Every structure is written in structure tokens, then in C-alpha cells.
Write the C-alpha cells for this entry.
Amino acid sequence: MSRASGSLPQGEEKRKAVQAMFDTIAPRYDLVNRVMTFRMDVGWRRRTVGDLGLAPGSLVVDLASGTGDLCHDLARAGLRPIAVDLSLGMLQHATHGFPRVQGDGLALPFSTGAVDGVVCGFALRNFVALAPALAELARVIRPGGRIALLDVSVPANPLLRAGHGAYFGRVVPLIGGLLSDGAAYRYLPKSVAYLPAPAELLVMVRAAGFTTVERAQLSTGITQLICATREHDRPAVP
């Protein structure tokens, strides 16, 4: 069960709010990411593609692709990326020529077992419902295929946790307001409340039809990377 606050939008209201927000911040999205993470996001994405562990030529969906940073890293690794995002504004500001599809993570426009893997960067908390989204990943990925899901986290160390909370809750909205849209970057820190606790999230990934589920904390725990393999002998959750 999510820890989302009642003050945050839910259901269709959330879907519409997320779509509109990312349409708004698309023009300067990459710039804000680089500034507010001190370019650590570049290393996080490269780690995501490396830990995906798929052979060159594999077809990989970049879900909630934004402007396509992960697509570039996938292509550099010899993989074939397809960008999927709910936000048309993000897709229109993509900095690549890879295939792009506007789509919802709860109803991906691919047939069962059609792709070799899925990566997703900082978007788990933006889906209307996380368990159905994970089940949808299991549906479209072939048995033996892989997922690599990158998202925010909270450091275990109390001092680091306090510092990160202050930076994420106060400085990030300030940066976002100066460079892009203040309301959007005030919402993003709050949206972490949508994420389940780590142990619960791993249980959800396994329940969706994945095995060898692993979670790594990056950069002193401010980011988490969850990787898993699509099971061979169990159908996806409908």
C-alpha cells in the first residue's frame, strides 16, 4: 500500500495533473535535472543501462522517457530504444530520432512478450497505480527479459537523510522555480510519498512476475535502482 498523502491527487486526477505538469516543464527539463543533481543523473542513467544486462540489439522500452536521455544511453550500449511517455510535450522536446510513442504505463501499446526489456527513470511515483504498471511491464517483456527501474530514495543515515530532505524539499523547488515552473518542482518532492517502502516495492515487483529482484542504493542512498528478470514459467498478472 502506498504512503501517499491524501493531499496529493489520485486516480484520473493524478493522471491529468502529471501529464499537464510534464508538458509544462518539458522545455527546460534536462537543464533543471543537470543543475539540481550536479550532473549525478548522468551516472545514474549509465548505471541503469549497464545493470539492465541485455545483449546488443535487444529492443528496450524507455518508459516515461521524458526527452530521451536514457534512450541515448541505451543506443550507446548497442540496444534499440523506443521512447514512451504520457506527456506529448516531453516527446516533442526529445533530443533524439528514436521511435517515440505517446502512451500510458498502465496500457502499453505493445503485444505480449514483444520487447526484451524496459527501463524507467524517476517515474514510478507518477503512475496512477504502481502494481498494475508493474504487471503491464511483465506482460510486454518476453520471458527472461529484464527491467531496470531508477527512482528517488531516502538515505539510511540520519544525518544524510536530514540533509537530503532539506535539499530536496527546499532547494530543488527553488531551482525549479528559477529555471522552469515553481509549482511543478514543489510537487515533485512531495510525490515521493507515492512510493512504497523499499521492502514493499520489491514484493510488488516479484508479485508482478519477476525474479532475481535486486535493489541498489546509489550516491549515499538518494537514488535507488531496482533490476529484475521476467520469469519464464509464470504468466503476467492480468
